[in-house]
């Protein structure tokens, strides 16, 4: 039920997806849906938790907490790519939120905290010389996320590019781009 | 009228923005809007043309047509960043399209042709050794666009980062990431 609801939200936009549309996509009635959840916002909450729990769990792993800042950054970026691919429709929904309701704003706030942890790793890696210092660290972080988050828009889970290869490619391009220009 | 309509589409999603909502945002009546346009799809068409005409015009400039593939790629990426920033709300609308109508699909097709021109430059630059060959060129192109397109989600036109500085930063990170690993 959650999978199909999230697919509908992603196809039409959450705001434009009524309970009537959901019932049709689920092949059931509105009252049958209301038997399970209080409304479509409950479905949104469950879906956003799935995406955010996945991303946040990456930060709890030992690889995200131990080692050099560059190694930790590499670990977290790889983990984020793998979560994006594993929870593709859920992260897609998260990334398309506009923050129109309290629930959406609180999910965006959790996402900002996740982004902030990565910005901190970028700062640490700049401080020890493993990431270029000629570009503002917020710009670096945002462009990195832009690259990674775009995966939800184009990655085909049934294509030939495996999640691990994709993660390797992202890390190779990102760390190439983040090196001090003098080192090249 | 177009500016305010596009802001409403971007805030709420195009599908969820009714003519009633548009009238309210414009401080006018639905019939006053219908005096100027046949419906909200006309507004969408005008807005998408503005974004696409801007992007396509970059490809017509001499810098996009002459020089080495790497120089042409650099020119086009810089031009794309500057159009994104100049036409921010219009490109935002374009990038959020889901392709639910004929008009949306035809705009997405024009955007795909633009992306395809850049993919061709990436291929040419790979062929002459100026872009890494260890990563699939479609993956490279998509990650590049992901980075660049993300600008519409976070760039603040009234902030301290100028469009030219942003374009420099994007080019520096992108070309760092695209170099052959052996060269570093």
Q: Which terms summarize this structure?
A:
homodimer, Tetracycline Repressor, domain 2, 11 helices, about 75% helix
Structure description:
The structure is a homodimer of 184-residue chains. The first copy, chain A, has a single domain, classed as Tetracycline Repressor, domain 2 (Orthogonal Bundle). The first copy, chain A, has eleven helices and no strands. The relative contact order of chain A is 0.12. Chain A is elongated, with a radius of gyration of 19 Å. The first copy, chain A, has 184 residues and is an all-alpha fold. In chain A, helix 1 crosses helix 7 and helix 4 (40-60) packs parallel to helix 8 (102-127). At the A-B interface, helix 9, helix 10 and helix 11 of A face helix 9, helix 10 and helix 11 of B. Chains A, B: Keywords: DNA-binding, Transcription, Transcription regulation. Chains A, B: Residues 18-37 bind DNA. Chains A, B: One of its GO terms (molecular function) is transcription cis-regulatory region binding. Chains A, B: This is Transcriptional regulator, TetR family. Chains A, B: Residues 1-55 form the HTH tetR-type domain.
């Amino acid at each position: 039920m959650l999978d199909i609801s999230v697919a509908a939200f992603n196809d039409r936009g959450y705001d434009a997806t009524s309970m009537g549309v959901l019932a049709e996509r689920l092949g059931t009635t509105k009252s049958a849906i209301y038997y399970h959840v209080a409304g479509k916002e409950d479905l949104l909450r469950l879906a956003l938790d799935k995406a955010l729990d996945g991303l946040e769990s990456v930060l709890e792993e030992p690889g995200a907490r131990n080692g050099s800042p560059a190694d930790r950054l590499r670990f977290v970026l790889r983990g984020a790519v793998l979560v994006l691919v594993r929870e593709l429709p859920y992260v897609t929904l998260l990334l398309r939120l506009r923050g129109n309701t309290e629930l959406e704003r609180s999910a965006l706030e959790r996402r900002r905290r996740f982004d902030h942890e990565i910005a901190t790793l970028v700062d640490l890696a700049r401080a020890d010389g493993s990431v270029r210092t000629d570009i503002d660290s917020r710009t670096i972080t945002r462009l990195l996320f832009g690259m990674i988050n775009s995966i939800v828009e184009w990655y085909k889970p049934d294509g030939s590019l495996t999640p691990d290869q994709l993660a390797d490619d992202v890390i190779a391009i990102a760390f190439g781009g983040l090196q001090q220009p003098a080192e090249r």
